[in-house]
Specification:
two-stranded antiparallel ribbon
Length: 113
């Protein structure tokens, strides 16, 4: 799957046209991607779809996309991590490399459609 992810602007509270859940088609919401998977190959999932395929309970998800677990407060859903596009490039930030502006953009998106 070749994925185009142009058009993210962290100053705007909207998502690029191709930033959508590969399972249900949800747009305009936070998405998660498979951890350590090339951007061209990764599947994007909304919170509900990532939880379903990961068999994880997200009923306590907070507005910023995090939830409390036995491990503490996390923003992962199973092996899925926040899918934060790199401005001006066709890729996503590595999980521990996202700049503050990208984190703020992603956290500002709604969790659910």
């Amino acid at each position: 799957m070749k994925r185009k992810i142009d058009g993210v602007d962290y100053r705007e509270d909207k998502t690029p046209a191709d930033y959508k859940c590969d399972s249900c088609g949800a747009t305009g919401v936070k998405l998660w991607r498979e951890y350590q998977t090339f951007a061209d190959c990764t599947e994007l999932r909304c919170a509900r779809c990532a939880a379903k395929v990961s068999d994880k309970d997200i009923s306590n998800m907070e507005v910023d996309g995090s939830r409390k677990t036995d491990l503490g407060k996390i923003d992962q859903i199973g092996w899925y991590v926040p899918a934060i596009p790199v401005e001006g490039q066709n890729t996503y930030w590595g999980y521990s490399s996202v700049p503050d502006e990208g984190v703020k953009w992603w956290r500002g998106l709604p969790n659910f459609a």
